[in-house]
């Protein structure tokens, strides 16, 4: 199976902590879970991978996505999605226009009617076509979580970063949205890197990396 995300080694400074992380390789829809106590730098590492330039993070080794080094690429060029605890939908836009905002370049060149038909089809796949014209404020927590993931997938990411994405959901809904999220990533064959403090969120097949095991 083709490697989608990898580093051979990673010597990285996260604030006052330095780590020398072992080789990592993700194929298909593999999931890597970053472990470690509060302040270990898990979220900082995620945002650095995303391309968010942070003065307290420095790295001496290359990270590869689809075989290409990404360290010097912009956020847009990396094509990495991010899901966080708060679903950051644009409140002034409808659900449909929130999704339209995420369309990749090849879809932006198409006619608006074609774009709308495609987006309605994607909404139908998650049984939310009836909410196309709804405002984000009209959505429940679970509905907003589904729209947030769909918007991220519509952008056709090569890698998905999950930073406590289920933490704000009530226990009844949490397991349902969690299972649905990983099913969607598996179907799209998008690997992910996740930070969570809830062991119940970790897929049975996930790889785990405890940063504190590699603190220099």
TrEMBL record:
Keyword set includes DNA damage: no
Protein name per UniProt: ABC transporter
Highest taxon listed in the record's lineage: Bacteria
Organism phylogeny: Bacteria, Pseudomonadati, Pseudomonadota, Gammaproteobacteria, Alteromonadales
A Pfam family per the record: ABC_tran
Organism: Pseudidiomarina taiwanensis
SUPFAM superfamilies: P-loop containing nucleoside triphosphate hydrolases
InterPro entries per record: AAA+_ATPase (IPR003593), ABC_SmlMolc_Importer (IPR050093), ABC_transporter-like_ATP-bd (IPR003439), ABC_transporter-like_CS (IPR017871), P-loop_NTPase (IPR027417)
GO MF: ATP binding; ATP hydrolysis activity
Limits of the ABC transporter domain: 1-216
Keywords for this protein: ATP-binding, Nucleotide-binding, Transport
